[in-house]
């Protein structure tokens, strides 16, 4: 599972900077949490299943490759198809979250962020990380997730 999530982080790092289509109030973000929790669990389950299938295929590929060079192209196509299926599933999950206006930042850590417009017009991100009960933190766009601050300090 750990190599799955390092692969996911690589894919997510390649994705372009997200466009903000909607800003959430703190109340709206909290009201969205049941959907976020449910869909994050489904995403992890689906991606984990696809990853297991991919790893099994990789092992079979290695065994076949060692034994039969004549099947190399066919097995390589199979591996590429499985990898494409995995990448497509990840992209679809990221899009589902984007379509709702929030960002799936890190599948492994269960991090989802909600764009928030402060009273002074500054854009911030309300942060939720599984299994937190609610939205307890925010961060500035150019700060890493580890620099998040308690929502009691929201401007």
Structural summary, described in words:
With 155 residues, the protein is of the alpha+beta class. The protein has one domain. Helix content is 54%, strand content 15%. It is built from three helices and five strands; from the N terminus they run αααβββββ. It has helices at 2-14, 26-67, 72-100, and strands at residues 103-106, 111-117, 123-129, 137-139, 149-150. Strands 1-2-3-4-5 form a five-stranded antiparallel sheet. Strand 1 (103-106) and strand 2 form a beta hairpin. Helix 2 (26-67) packs antiparallel against helix 3 (72-100).
Detail the topology: elements first, then pairings.
Blueprint lengths: L1 H13 L11 H42 L4 H29 L2 E4 L4 E7 L5 E7 L7 E3 L9 E2 L5
Antiparallel strand pairs: 1-2, 2-3, 3-4, 4-5
Q: How is this structure best summarized?
A:
By secondary structure, the chain is an alpha+beta fold. The chain has three helices and five strands, in the order αααβββββ.
The number of E-state strands comes to: 5
Beta-sheet strand percentage? 5-15%
Structural class, from helix and strand content? alpha+beta
Radius of gyration: 19 Å
Output the helix-strand order.
HHHEEEEE
Average pLDDT across residues? 84
**Portion in helices:** 40-55%
The coarse silhouette is: elongated
Low-confidence stretches: none
Main beta-sheet strand count, sense and barrel state = 5 strands, antiparallel
Q: How far apart are the first and last residues' alpha carbons, in Å?
A: 39 Å
Count the DSSP helices.
Answer: 3
Number of domains: 1
Strand order of the largest sheet: 1-2-3-4-5
